[in-house]
Known about the structure:
- By secondary structure, this protein is mainly α.
- The protein is 79% helix and 0% strand.
- The radius of gyration is 20 Å and the shape is elongated.
- The termini are far apart.
Amino acid sequence: xxxxxxxxxxxxxxxxxxxxxxxxxxxxxxxxxxxxxxxxxxxxxxxxxxxxxxxxxxxxxxxxxxxxxxxxxxxxxxxxxxxxxxxxxxxxxxxxxxxxxxxxxxxxxxxxxxxxxxxxxxxxxxxxxxxxxxxxxxxxxxxxxxxxxxxxxxxxxxxxxxxxxxxxxxxxxxxxxxxxxxxxxxxxxxxxxxxxxxxxxxxxxxxxxxxxxx
Length: 214
């Protein structure tokens, strides 16, 4: 969450002005505080937002709310920022919608997360990380077919990626497409032999195939 939020301002088009650099530095300090002292960070962000109305203040406010476990409120603020007049470039809006979606996942709100990642993809079509995140949301909703579709699209952009292969293997296991699931799991392990999760999925697929053997 923090790393992507810190990158949002940097994604804006054009060279940063001195004021923009100052706001970025203040945002970094505010978010760092949100990690350890979320109550203080929220109060700081609220005062900052009331004083200057800059977007960075509201970004920190959202992060502080999420750190305070007020995840729904933080996600709603991020969603509002993503469509606001000062929402920045398409990349910036995609990042903010992505952060809202990940907050929704933390709150087990799969439908809202799917909506956020879908909106992010409208600003950054075909972005593999967004497709992976939306697949995670579909998996949470147990919509394995759509999860598999998004992971296949992501794999087209990022071939031989062990994470994508492992996640698609898990989705295909749930879809009972065991030969394809085993192929993905084998490729995931080959791409990253130390990935314990990939080894676990491969074991699950093999166990499922053994259970179906005559």
